[in-house]
Specification:
The structure is a homodimer. By secondary structure, chain A is an alpha/beta fold. In chain A, about 45% of the residues lie in helices and about 15% in strands. The longest helix of chain A has 17 residues, at about 190-205. The first copy, chain A, binds a DNA duplex through helix 2 and helix 4. Chains A, B: It holds the Pfam family Peripla_BP_3.
DNA sequence: CTGTTAGCGCGTTCAA
DNA sequence: TTGAACGCGCTAACAG
């Protein structure tokens, strides 16, 4: 049971000083004579002393831990985001508690993060209901949304301008002559779909005088299989192109088409928006909006460190630049 | 700064009992009269009391937290593993601290997990050097290897029988008439490659009297790009088939071939071993060893819970059953 | 069945 | 520049 072999007291005794002094050198307090500091450090080394982060957290009321809420680690978009987060967290010496929320039990997950006394929360995911919002609010810990939006946005966030991004790629398809462009969405209870990506799609239509057609909207899960299954409906809808909100779904749509003899991009065009490395795997390769996914994660974590440090944020809602890369699934 | 709004004392006072009693109901101790229990519970509800896990951890010397060491969340193999781990961890009410090791700074990462007083460690990754082994050993916290091997294996682990699995698929290629079969490996300083997968490959050759040819062994990183780059060398080696140890690499090899006019499986066959959903994305789809990835994660976490509970393990080294699925990248 | 009392390991005043 | 003493919020004997 004696996990904690050596404590701060052991070091103090061995070094012939008080624990307060040991605490000072461990925490880089300058008010220590360099001789005693060296002495203490050598004892620390020799005893292989490792400060107990739990005790430290209790005493200092800071856990140097942040909670990451992620809908699904298995989805490349989120896992790449988390890489950016992780790297910056490490840089600032924060530990990470990662919790899969599956968009459902987010509240429960956040609850347990809070009980762990996390110093901040990085939230990915697009379903933020009132209960969750309330919970976050009264928790008093800073929250940053990473690659995720909330219409009622009280919280700082880092994203790209989804509306413009989707609008631009839809435009390209329109310019290529398409009249019936399907929009392949994730769950329609997520505002990132309804209020942002779909809106971009609608904007493009409106600007070019194409009438919005509800029957060209398809909703599924952010998974390959889901896109593949939707493929048949999409084809039967008479659409000649698809704007897809997730790379894995897009791969599904694309593969369904080619598997069924529909030539891409000659007979059907597909664009996606995440530009994860999935886009390179398919044949033909997927044209995509370019998102700085890693950076979104990194920047959001950096914001969180500032918040946890009680620094002011110049801009609470950051939109990073996006782009477009034409590959083989579109003509332009 | 007053993160912790309400403490166990507040509840005790409000409910007119001692904090010990509150502690009992919170921890499900049965020795509490049901009336007082209800009273306490209602106060807890009313005050929105949430136990401080840090304080609890300090007092009980159990953090109900496990550390997960993962080489790269971005790799589907590992992220699917972590799903299995996560689900079981949640089932047993353990929190998870996830740390990207990148196979390099594993020791450093483990160090910080230990300082967080994790109750156990689930280790993924295949480079375990002496320092790390030493560190784990003297830490006294239970460790389970998940989808990872260690030749000097002191630690419990959950895997499939990589030797047999690779041997079997290599056999299939040999039966199909191939004489020059390339082996596309991850880093050769990882024993999972040298001592297991490569060994399976060699076994198959030996059993059928084919001479081992060093020039047919290719090593890269577990990434799509790496496989794609290796593609050219593989083609020039005169090999007519590839056994690849990672799905993303396999996708790279396959795409390189088709991109360069090599017909698969007619002119070249490719088999991979992880059967992640990547295998479905490529065209042709990848034949693969079937690994119960999710289960490997789940079972290893289950083992860890037993260990943390001081239960005995019947079998410290579990090998889950594997299989094979023929898709389109092979003839058999 | 319930309350009292020690700590858990460390940060942090406040004196010296 | 250092040390003594208190407390962070909770668990765990030990009494009663």
């Amino acid at each position: 049971m004696e996990k904690q072999a050596v404590t701060i007291y052991d070091v103090a005794r061995e070094a012939g000083v008080s624990m307060a002094t040991v605490s000072r050198v461990v925490n880089g307090n300058t008010n220590v004579r360099s001789e005693t500091k060296e002495k203490v450090e050598s004892v620390i080394e020799q005893l292989n002393y490792r400060p107990n982060a739990v005790a430290r957290g209790l005493a200092s009321r800071r856990s140097t831990t942040v909670g990451i809420v992620i809908p699904d680690v298995t989805n490349v978009y989120f896992s790449e985001l988390s890489r950016g987060i992780d790297d910056v967290a490490r840089m600032y010496n924060y530990q990470i508690i990662l919790a899969n929320s599956e968009e459902k039990n987010a509240a429960e997950v956040v609850e347990s993060l809070l009980s762990k006394q996390v110093d901040g929360i990085l939230y990915m995911g697009n379903i933020i209901d009132d209960r969750l919002r309330d919970q976050l609010e009264k928790s008093n810990v800073p929250v940053v949304l990473s690659g995720s939006v909330d219409v009622e946005n009280q919280n700082p966030s880092v994203n790209i301008d989804y509306i413009s991004a989707v609008q631009e790629i839809t435009d390209k398809l329109i310019v290529s002559g398409h009249k019936k462009i399907s929009f392949v969405s994730g769950p329609l209870d997520q505002t990132i779909n309804t209020e942002f990506k779909l809106k971009g799609y609608k904007n493009a239509l409106k600007n070019t005088g194409i009438k919005f057609d509800e029957s060209l909207i398809f909703a599924g899960e952010y998974e390959y299989q889901s896109g593949y299954q939707l493929g048949d409906e999409i084809r039967q809808s008479g659409a000649t192109a698809s704007v897809v909100v997730d790379d894995e779904m897009a791969a599904g749509v694309l593969n369904f088409m080619t598997d069924n003899g529909v030539k891409i991009p000659e007979d059907f065009e597909v664009v996606t928006v995440n530009n994860s490395h999935i886009t390179l795997l398919t044949r033909p390769q997927l044209s995509s909006v370019i998102q700085p996914i890693y950076d979104i994660g990194a920047v959001s974590m950096r914001m969180l460190t500032k918040l946890m440090n009680n620094e002011e944020l110049e801009t609470p809602e950051i939109l990073l630049a996006h782009g477009y890369v034409k590959r083989e699934s579109t003509k332009n």
